[in-house]
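User: Batch of two.

Assistant: Item 1 of 2:
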Amino acid sequence: MPVVVMLWGASAAFAQTPGAPSSPAGGLFGGAVRGAAADRSLNLSMSLVEAFDDDLQGDVTGIQATSARSSGFYTALTPNLDVASRGRRVQVNATIGSNMRYYGDLNRLVSVGHSAAGGFSAQLTRRTTLSLSQSISYAPSSSRLFGLFASAAPADIKNVVDAAGNSAIDPATDSAVTSAARNVAGSERSYVYGTTLGLTHAVTQRATLTFDSGFRYTDFNGPPGLMELRSYHGGGRFSYRVSRDASVRLGYAYRQAVYSAANEPVTHDIDVGIDYLWPLTHTRKTTLGFSVGSTVLSGPLQEGAVLNAERTQYRAVGDASLTHQIGRTWRVQGLYHRGLGFVPGLTSAVSTNALTVTTDGFLNRRTDVLASAAYSTGDSPLSGRPSEFKTYTGDARVRFALTRTWATYVEYLYYLYDFNPSLQLPPGMSPHLRRNSARVGLTLWLPLRQGLQS
């Protein structure tokens, strides 16, 4: 069963997913939609943003109230550099990114987060492929909770390099990062290191055998009330494609999180299920997909800081999607995810249900539009106290291409979370927050090197 990169937990994964909408013929901005990938590429992307965020709702402990609750403007610079080499047998990807912000009312320049990731995939034989990735990120401690928020798409271990590279600057919790960046001291920063190793073997044209393993370490750099988290996973899966749209699978994965010597919850992910992508129309413009599985969680029951006897929980996990292609340039998609995983910043496993609705496409060759809304809810199955939470996020963006390498955009973000007060959160993070953000930005996408191998 693949591991969700953001949540670091169990999920079923689709065998196939519909692609993104294509740009109109001659679409201008290269950073919006790129054509066929070059064998070698080196791309620099950078955004300069002027933003306004409104008042925080809720008291933030350990921070001066006048600073934590203020509205105001800030300027953000987010450079990113990625390099890729795609040979016949070996593919290599690497990315590095950063997020810097300047708050004029505080006369303060803040380093919000930095991240780097790299990985490769090598075809050992005609049917066997080996993949390895490594990532590191640096960000405010509270931003690690983005695993609780609905994602725009089901995560896949094959995308671990891209996901890890973006993990320090996640759009869903960007407003929370804003408040943390304004107020959190350097001692409340965190580092996350991740490694994954995978092996895929095509037994036949229809049958595939996959093994994957990984390690993730979150270091909160010493703030009181937060425990470092080490998590491990390993497992295998056999899948058989029954038809163009359906496959069956059988697999098992073992995962363990280490919060302390006495708190080491374990999950056994029993992956017996099906992956199905069903075209609802003859033109295949509307598709319904679903994937199901199950997991068994065992660990000590937590009553605040007190650990009691072990408890075993059985949970169903899965994903579902409904996608409708509108012409060649627009897409509407709904996604549902139910999973169980370990989230840095919390001291117990978390069960989540998340729903996301997204539409994106092109008005013309210069203008693309994105709108999304998401909701998630969940709790901690091993908590002896109420531990429910819910989150809402919304995003609307219009981007206009000035040239192939320059674009400007306007964006609105809405963000709300509500945690049960008994749920232990990172120091300085309020259990309730609502925030609105408006932004105007300028984006540069610069292909420093593109080419085909001879």
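Item 2 of 2:
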Amino acid sequence: MRIWYPIALAASLIPALSGAQDGRVITLEGEAIPADIVRIAEGKASAEDGREFALDSLRAIIPPEAGGAEPPQAPFVRMVNGGVLEAPSAVLEGERVRFDHPVLGQVSLGIDSLHALALRAPAQESRFDKAIRSAPGGRQDDVLFLTDPEGGEPQEAEGLTESLSEGKVVFDRAGELADAARADLFGIVFAAPAAEGPPPARVVLAKGGTAAGEILGMDAAGLRLRLGPGAEVTARREDIRRIALNSPRLVFLSDLEPAAAGQEPIIAPERPAQMDRSAEGSLITVGGELFEKGIGVGSGSRLAFSLDPSQRFALFTAAIGIDDETGGKGDCEFTVWVDGQERLRQRCRGGDPARRIRVDVSGARQLELRVEAGEDLDLADHADWADASLVRAK
């Protein structure tokens, strides 16, 4: 049963499932349906009880008993398609980077599928961090980040990376080979082509990051995934925390540039909106549920997005709540405004499960998301607009 708000039936709060650890699928429209998916083949996801779901009708598959996930640790690779995988002892030989992943085993990726390789964890908002998080494409040369002898930010050197071994990196600078000790290398941002579009699927793993690519199938042996040309891997079902499926009908707000953004905190410092991260820059997690997409903000925040009616957006959907990084603290109100009219208001407290919401945006020109402080001021109001997306009409 849906709980409708008295606002012209334009918004709804979708009740949480009674068993938070039940397996479930999430439809494109944001509805959670209990289902333990045991097989994927021929464009369908099959549940243990025999029900079938068309993959193109779903946005996510969540296995039963899916717990938390450990964020990827350096060394890691960031792929052009958005995947991020731990890459311990990564080496570059010829045109492929090879490493042993803690869940996927031996992985070999073509260099053209890689956006960056980080051998050390980048300091947040450093040039190295911004380069790794920048959109792939637009570079003629690789950029190597090397230790600054004075102890400052890493120095940048441009060229084409020839090889990376356990001892050193070799790169071509204007036709001349140069090398540096691996110990002095922070990482490399590659001159990779821009992504052609989002990957068909993103798989959040229990540890080691998120694998992105094409689903080849799933059975008792696990989920088979093609990360890129010549790169097929298998993840055991027990190592999967969430399978996110892309659809041409979905547009995630974290992939858009807000038309306007601002924050008016009460006591807490200003926290700029974090795309696909919590307010503190961690994986978005609400009530133990992981989300690979979304926006993390502090209370007092406002984010406005311009909507083009020609895009035929029908719904705004999200899973809202206080991020688990607060340890159960926090109390705030989420409000959704469409063309200047409040359409939904929902209060959330730390420790609550994520609440799925839907708001009608048919024909609208502006969507605004606001978060207001609750009773406990705003010190722990790490609010998540998880899975926030616009859904096109069929």
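The chain is about 0% helix and 50% strand.
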